[in-house]
């Protein structure tokens, strides 16, 4: 399929001060759009001026939440200035798995990657230059049937928007405080926890807000059935170092299979460091926190790469982890992954995909 390119006749001013970019507030001059109709497949692939969408008030996505998304970044590598993506094929594969779960059509992976690269290339001047900055890429897909019946989608739209984003750790890597969420649950097996769908986020904001009011940055989710096992932290995967061993909850159908999670496991194993994927109970975690064998804890995801946990609240008890400072393993993982992303160290795994 050809991609029609319609240049924006009124390109916007690039943000002058990259330190004020924040996250997801500024958008580039162009977006990729494509439509799907049942019986016809994907058609009308375009890179067009960034702008508002027009939706019918009965559009399925507004009523029934048939929406999925992805999040990845384009990096301007230090030295070469080359603009690269990190494992974009993984995001496309996950988008397709999310699509299947939500009754939405899959994309041709090669074409989807070509479209991503083309869009980033056209707006490449928007990739910020400062250390730790990036161009955040948000592909998303939604059902857009114009009726109120609950059916599989017959009309679907796929869009990619780009947002230059500031350094997540502009003020240095500061460990965050998290608390066990014992009221709401994020997902259950058989539900949509494995899919990156908007509804999962909509259902999680209440717990996040409550945690914030109590002075915590994120919640640590438990499994939705027994409420005994650790699942994720906020919208990141969680990892622990207990008695010298790295472990993370095994993908069980309700946990989002993070690409950062997968990369960290591959990295550790390539270095000969055992990394376990298994069930981790709250009881085990509390015991480890109590007897001091909980050495480190960190969240992992595209936005932060790793986010060390400084304090963990379990009910009324608050445990400090590694004296509230980032641990050696967490720091090593941050340096290793960002080293590859920013072009400071060799990409032994072939994770980097140049845009041009
Ligand atoms: C996106 C996401 C993650 C992290 O995935 P990455 O591919 O590493 O960015 C983890 N948990 C949830 C719920 C997510 O939506």
List the keywords:
binds pyridoxal-5'-phosphate, 356 residues, 23% helix, 30% strand, 9-stranded mixed β-sheet, 8 helices, alpha+beta
Give unreliable regions as ranges.
none
Bound molecule types: pyridoxal-5'-phosphate
Please tell me the overall pLDDT: 96
Order of helices and strands: EEEHEEEHHEEEHHEEEEHEHEEEHE
Helical coverage, percent range = 10-25%
Strand content: 25-35%
Principal-axes shape call: globular
Output the radius of gyration.
21 Å
The total beta strand count reads 18
End-to-end separation in angstroms reads 20 Å
Structural class comes to: alpha+beta
Helix run count = 8
Q: Please outline the major beta sheet.
A: 9 strands, mixed
Describe the model.
The protein is an alpha+beta fold. The chain is built from 8 helices and 18 strands. Strands 1, 2, 3, 4, 5, 6, 7, 8 and 18 form a 9-stranded mixed sheet that branches. A 6-stranded mixed β-barrel has the order 9-10-11-12-15-16, surrounded by 4 helices. A hairpin with a 3-residue loop joins strand 2 and strand 3. Helix 2 packs across helix 3. The longest helix is centred in the first third of the chain and has 14 residues. The two termini are 20 Å apart. Bound molecules: pyridoxal-5'-phosphate (PLP). Pyridoxal-5'-phosphate binds next to strand 12 and helix 6. Pyridoxal-5'-phosphate (PLP) binds next to strand 12 and helix 6.
Secondary-structure topology with pairs:
Blueprint: E1 4-5, E2 30-37, E3 41-49, H1 60-64, E4 67-69, E5 72-76, E6 83-86, H2 88-101, H3 109-122, E7 134-143, E8 155-165, E9 176-180, H4 198-202, H5 205-213, E10 218-222, E11 230-233, E12 236-242, E13 245-249, H6 259-270, E14 275-278, H7 282-291, E15 294-301, E16 305-314, E17 317-320, H8 328-341, E18 352-354
Parallel strand pairs: 1-3, 9-10, 9-16, 13-14
Antiparallel strand pairs: 2-3, 2-8, 4-7, 5-6, 5-7, 6-18, 7-8, 10-11, 11-12, 12-13, 12-15, 15-16, 16-17
């Amino acid at each position: 399929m050809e991609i029609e390119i319609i240049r924006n006749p009124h390109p916007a001013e690039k943000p002058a001060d990259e330190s004020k970019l924040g996250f997801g507030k500024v958008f580039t001059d162009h977006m990729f759009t494509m439509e799907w109709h049942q019986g016809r497949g994907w058609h009308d692939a375009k890179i067009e001026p960034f702008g508002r969408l027009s939706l019918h008030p009965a559009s399925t996505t507004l009523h029934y939440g048939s929406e999925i998304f992805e999040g990845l970044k384009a990096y301007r590598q230090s030295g070469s200035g080359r603009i690269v993506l990190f494992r974009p094929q993984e995001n496309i594969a996950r988008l397709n798995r999310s699509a299947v779960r939500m009754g939405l059509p899959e994309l041709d992976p090669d074409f989807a990657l070509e479209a991503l690269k083309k869009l980033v290339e056209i707006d490449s001047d928007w990739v910020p230059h400062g250390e730790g900055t990036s161009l955040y890429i948000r592909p998303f897909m939604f059902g857009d049937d114009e009726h109120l019946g609950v059916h599989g989608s017959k009309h679907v739209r796929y869009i990619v928007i780009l947002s230059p984003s500031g350094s997540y750790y502009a003020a240095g890597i500061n460990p965050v405080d998290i608390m066990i969420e014992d009221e709401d649950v994020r997902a259950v097996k058989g539900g949509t926890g494995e899919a990156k769908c908007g509804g999962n986020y909509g259902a999680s904001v209440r717990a996040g807000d409550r945690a914030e009011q109590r002075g915590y940055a994120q919640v640590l989710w438990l499994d939705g059935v027994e409420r005994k096992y650790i699942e994720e932290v906020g919208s990141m995967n969680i990892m622990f170092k207990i008695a010298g061993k790295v472990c993370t909850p095994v993908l069980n159908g309700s946990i989002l299979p993070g690409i950062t999670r997968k990369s960290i496991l591959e990295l550790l194993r390539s270095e000969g460091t055992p990394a376990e994927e298994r069930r981790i109970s709250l009881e085990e975690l509390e015991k480890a926190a109590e007897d001091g064998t909980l050495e480190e804890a960190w969240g992992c995801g595209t936005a932060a790469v790793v986010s060390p946990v400084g304090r963990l609240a379990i009910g009324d008890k608050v445990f400090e982890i590694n004296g509230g400072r980032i641990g050696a393993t967490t720091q090593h993982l941050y340096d290793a992954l960002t080293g590859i992303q920013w072009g400071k160290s060799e990409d032994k795994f072939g994770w980097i995909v140049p845009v041009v």
